[in-house]
Write a structure and sequence with these properties.
GO terms for molecular function: ATP binding; ATP hydrolysis activity; transmembrane transporter activity. Residues 3-222 form the ABC transporter domain. Keywords: ATP-binding, Nucleotide-binding, Transport. This protein is of the alpha/beta class. It has one domain: P-loop containing nucleotide triphosphate hydrolases (Rossmann fold, 3-Layer(aba) Sandwich), CATH 3.40.50. The protein has eight helices and ten strands. Strands 6-7-8-3-9-10 form a six-stranded mixed sheet, sandwiched between helices. The protein is globular and about 55 Å long. It starts with a strand and ends in a 5-residue tail after the last strand.
């Protein structure tokens, strides 16, 4: 599913106190495309990602997935679309401590009233090296394992687009490399569009396309 934005922007406040978090931006991402989004803290990276994922409301402009205009949807329809087509991975793992790794992974399906597809569940957890950790609670998992559970949760509903905001920010270099290897492998295997916000230059250089944001302005692709 193609992801397209046209002059999307986000302001906070108004008048003399207005903050232009993201200036008008037009971008196109093809199905299965992989891109890194880089820039200084506060430059607008997370704002862009949140607008692409329907987590924030733009001040103006359009975000379209295929023929679906994200911000013309009613709230319930938007929530349903996110659950079925968009996966999110954040720096904070956001796992529910009272749930096992398996239960955390299945949360998106439960929210959408869907049942677990056993073959796909097995494929995802084995691809992420989690098959022997599914009965563990988050406090019994390492940081790298918790992040992989978060990735499994983001993938379990077959998303078309995976949006990752500093997914390796809390990990050491070894776990960071492993997590990114998984993301690239799964993106290529299942033709998932992979967009990753990162401060890590080594990670950004692995992507075929790099977008740089400065003061809310998305500069030319650095690919």
């Amino acid at each position: 599913m193609q992801l397209f934005t046209e002059n999307i922007y986000r302001d906070y406040g108004d008048g003399e106190t207005v903050v232009h978090a993201l200036l008008p931006t037009t971008l196109t991402f093809q199905p299965g495309e992989q891109a890194a989004i880089i820039g200084a803290s506060g430059s607008g990276k997370s704002t862009l990602l949140n607008l692409l994922g329907g987590l924030d409301t733009p001040t103006g402009g359009m975000v379209r997935y295929g023929e679906e205009n994200l911000y013309q949807m009613k709230a319930d329809d938007l929530a349903r679309f996110r659950r079925r087509h968009i996966g999110f991975v954040f720096q904070a793992y956001n796992l529910i401590p009272e749930l096992t790794a398996e239960e955390n992974t299945l949360v998106p399906l439960l929210l959408d009233g869907q049942k677990k597809e056993e073959p796909f569940f097995t494929e995802v957890t084995e691809a992420l090296g989690l098959q022997n950790r599914m009965t563990h609670y988050p406090d019994a998992l390492s940081g790298g394992q918790q992040q992989r559970v978060a990735i499994a949760r983001a993938l379990i509903h077959h998303p078309d687009v995976l949006l990752c905001d500093e997914p390796t920010g809390n990990l050491d270099s070894k776990n960071s490399q492993e997590v990114m290897d998984y993301l690239f492998t799964l993106s290529e295997k299942w033709s998932i569009t992979l967009l990753v916000v990162t401060h890590d230059a080594k990670i950004a250089q692995r992507f075929p396309r790099i977008l740089h944001i400065e003061d809310g302005q998305v500069g030319g692709d650095l690919s």
